[in-house]
């Protein structure tokens, strides 16, 4: 599995790096970004995986969140995969809409054609990419956390809940909490997974919380000025489900904040501090 470096920038004493490689699980070339803090020069460091939202690539978080400063302070690497397979022959939304296809992998393993050939983002994030990171970089893979925004918040929460023991902590900004109950989920999951809604439950945070046997530290920030809050994100369903399941989650509603990276940049330092405590 060959890596080709396509970007490198010094940042807060560490290195912000970008690579491309041929992905076996996605059957296409993929890119990812990784921040290595200065502590990685001396010994393996813990790692935070960041999953981005609809329309994003591996670079949005890297360039807009301001996370490198906090990662350097705490000695944590940050890995940012792309949000979908890409390239010639990779299926896209027939209408070129932003909420399915390229940039909208939803962190699931598609079972329906034409999506199944490439859209195996769950396997890529859970298995292929971590194995590659562990083999190629000074990472302590036993100390891993995961976070994300919007579609990526959905991905982070579902992946953490479906893989107990893999991650020490999980956090999310404005996550899509219940794809079973929102238009984004209706469209995307019906295409990727088919019309049997029972098959969708394995990728629905609210449903996973109801049956979760293992609890881990959870931090969620949701802006109350978010235009997607009522129709798409359904944070109230997760609040009720976590309370009913007696699953302690720190869910913070932030007045006035919207869905943008201004929101993420405001609180990313607190999220990295939250993960640093769990990874210590």
Secondary structure elements and pairings:
Elements: E1 4-11, E2 14-23, E3 28-36, E4 45-51, H1 59-64, H2 68-74, E5 77-81, H3 121-136, E6 139-149, H4 151-162, E7 170-173, H5 183-193, H6 205-211, E8 218-223, H7 229-233, H8 235-244, E9 250-254, H9 261-279
Parallel strand pairs: 4-5, 4-6, 6-7, 7-8, 8-9
Antiparallel strand pairs: 1-2, 2-3, 3-5
Features:
Rossmann fold, 9 strands, nine-stranded mixed beta sheet, globular, alpha/beta
Residue-averaged pLDDT: 97
**Oligomeric state of the chains present here:** single chain
CATH superfamily: Alpha/Beta hydrolase fold, catalytic domain
Counting helices, strands and paired strands, the structural category is alpha/beta
Q: Number of folding domains? A: 1
Helix content: 25-40%
Question: CATH fold name, please?
Answer: Rossmann fold
Percentage of β-strand residues:
15-25%
Spans where pLDDT lies below 50 across 5 or more residues: none
The largest β sheet comes out as:
9 strands, mixed
Determine and state the CATH class: Alpha Beta
Basic shape: globular
- Secondary-structure element series: EEEEHHEHEHEHHEHHEH
| Count of DSSP strands | 9
Radius of gyration: 17 Å
Provide a count of the helices: 9
CATH architecture: 3-Layer(aba) Sandwich
The spatial strand order of the largest sheet comes to 1-2-3-5-4-6-7-8-9
End-to-end span in angstroms? 31 Å
């Amino acid at each position: 599995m060959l890596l080709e470096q396509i970007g490198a920038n010094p940042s807060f004493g560490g290195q912000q790096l970008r690579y491309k490689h041929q992905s076996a699980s996605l059957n296409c070339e993929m890119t990812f970004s990784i921040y290595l803090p200065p502590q990685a020069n001396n010994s393996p460091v813990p790692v935070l995986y960041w999953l981005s939202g609809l329309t994003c690539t591996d670079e949005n978080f890297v360039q807009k969140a301001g996370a490198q400063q906090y990662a350097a302070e705490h000695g944590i690497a940050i890995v940012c995969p792309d949000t979908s397979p890409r390239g010639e022959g990779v299926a896209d939304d027939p209408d070129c809409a932003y909420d399915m296809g390229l940039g909208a992998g939803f962190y699931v393993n598609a079972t329906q054609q034409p999506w199944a050939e490439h859209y195996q983002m769950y396997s890529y994030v859970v298995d292929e990419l971590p194995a590659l990171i562990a083999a190629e970089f000074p990472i302590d893979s036993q100390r891993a956390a995961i976070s994300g925004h919007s579609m990526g918040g959905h991905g982070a929460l579902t992946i953490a809940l479906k893989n107990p023991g893999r991650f020490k902590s999980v956090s999310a900004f404005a996550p899509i909490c219940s794809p079973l109950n929102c238009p984004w989920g209706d469209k995307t999951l019906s295409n990727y997974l088919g019309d049997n809604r029972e098959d969708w439950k394995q990728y629905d945070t609210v449903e996973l919380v109801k049956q979760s046997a293992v609890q881990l530290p959870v931090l969620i920030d949701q802006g109350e000025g978010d235009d997607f809050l009522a129709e798409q994100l359904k944070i109230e369903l997760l609040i009720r489900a976590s309370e009913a399941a007696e699953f302690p989650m720190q869910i913070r509603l932030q007045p006035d904040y919207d869905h943008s990276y201004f929101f993420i940049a405001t609180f990313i330092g607190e999220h990295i501090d939250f993960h640093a405590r769990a990874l210590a």
